[in-house]
## 1
Amino acid sequence: MGKNLIQQRRGKGSPTYRVPSFRFAGFAKLPAMSDELIRARVVDIYRDAIHSAPLAEVLYDNNKKGLLIAPEGLKVGAVLEIGASASLAIGNALPLENIPEGSLIFNIEKMPGDGGKFVRASGGFARIVAKTREGVVVELPSKKKKVFQPKCRAMIGVVAGGGRLEKPLVKAGKAYHIKKSKNKLYPRVRGVAMNAVDHPHGGTRSSHKGRPTIAPKNAPPGRKVGKLHPRRTGKR
């Protein structure tokens, strides 16, 4: 008697695995590629339940709003530039071929125009190592080197919110609520694995659900049936 794999249980769509997307601010990604320089003014900065990094709400030139991963040092009112002719400033997005070697970048596109897929977690950054015929070599936070297409865009700087993991959770309840906010599965201990004092299914060395069938010592006459309560237990 087996049980479903976790990915099979998740696919069923039960409330345990259903992500509360109505609480999320939206997708934080770069706008579609354009030959012209795109300017975005930072309207607000806030945190989102699904993103570990703070999000910057920006207003583009065409009066449309969007979300971007916020870098360290970003302020409300700052103007970001997106495009090949953008300046080399924190928060600006340029193609990798236009960013000098050794620069710290984040929110790197996997394919040109996809909005950013790599290095988006709080405090994360990658580094441009070299530029070759095959593409631009980038060292990811895992120290692994990956080759990207030169036209892939990336934002300059370090993702804000660094040091998030340095603060201890202290107690299991904090970890439970963090998982619950994103609807991640939190481990539950089986009752049969507990001691008898902790759960009705606990006790006995085998995984056996059960409770003592011996009638209590002070049970009324109508309940004093079956296995009567022994006068004492153990060896003399």
Note: The helical segments are 6-11, 172-181.
## 2
Amino acid sequence: MRAVHNGPVAFEIAVVWVGRRREPWEALCGDYRRRIERFAPVRELVVRPARGDDRTRLRLEGKAIRSALPADAWTVCLDRTGRRLSSTGLATEVRRLRSEWQRPVAWIVGSDLGLDRNLVSSCRFRLSLGPLTLAHELARLTLYEQIYRAFTILEGINYHRRPFY
């Protein structure tokens, strides 16, 4: 069953990321996008990496991300200083957003340099995937998997398993 896209979009998932499409990441992320579409519309917005020194790149990528964001999106930046949530905690946030925010929720993944600090400070929510440094491709895949996991928790689908300890 796929989400029906009639009329103006209400709640939707938008993943905005900086990079270039490369296998095997595209196949893996595509699989989770299709799974998530059972619960909500999903679109992916790709921003090309900028050129220049690191400071210039971050500033230009931040500007390009802002331009790519859907109008009136609730913005969630992946950032190591963000909130660390369990999978059930993320599901609670997704439930809240789905019921209270009738517009797109944009999940933002930076390039290999991360995200421009001005962009991060303007986001409504900062989410940390943990203290480890992840390749940005792996962070994007992990984000998709966790969004899917959140929806399965909310829908009572047997995907998420609680720890045995």
Note: The domain at 12-155 is CATH 3.40.1280.10 (Alpha/beta knot).
## 3
Amino acid sequence: MGKNLIQQRRGKGSPTFRALSKKYLGRICHIKNTTDDVEGRIIDIVKCPGHYGPVAMVKYDNNEEVLMIAPEGVRVGDSVAAGKNTGMKPGNTAELKEIPEGTLIYNIESMPGDGGKFCRTSGTFGRVSAKFNDRILVLLPSKKERAFIPTCRANIGVIAGSGRKEKPFYKAGKKYYARKARNKYYPSVSATSMNAVDHPFGGSSSARHKMPLQSSKHDPPGRKAGNLSPRGGKRKKR
């Protein structure tokens, strides 16, 4: 008798495959009140398990405290601002329509007020490429241009921690816990390398697969191992 595949066990929602979100510091977002120019100060720079870049704790003059992804070149005690007339200082928050072309930005909002969805990992940034009355074009790290609403906000600068990938993982256990903190599966094992009880392609009794490579499109997700069947590109008979 077999057992559930790994994708079936993860989809069940057990605590084994759940991210350790209770250790997260909180939600990364922009300041809520940006009708006027507000000054703030970085009170601490910390490490959050749920984010690749360092996190800065900012307290503004209106007594609002937010968690912001720290850019390169800032330190504890530096001042940041949010609003329309803030300047292009790293860490400042401004709307895209107020940012000049060619400026490097990060933590860009997809819709006004959502707190930021794009360019949030360490060492990444976007670039304002063109400005129009109804949209702002931003060049993303994937080398694709995306149009944003002019009132969407973003932070100025480049996210710190660009050399994170240069440091290797010397132990498999370190990599396991680093991936587990963000609910990522590690290690990823090939189906043919598994035992026969773990996967339809597992076992070492023969070189060929025990199950057909192409599964039916009517199979449930657990049975869709290998190539999926075509959608049916045959011409309809008239």
Note: The chain has a mean pLDDT of 86.
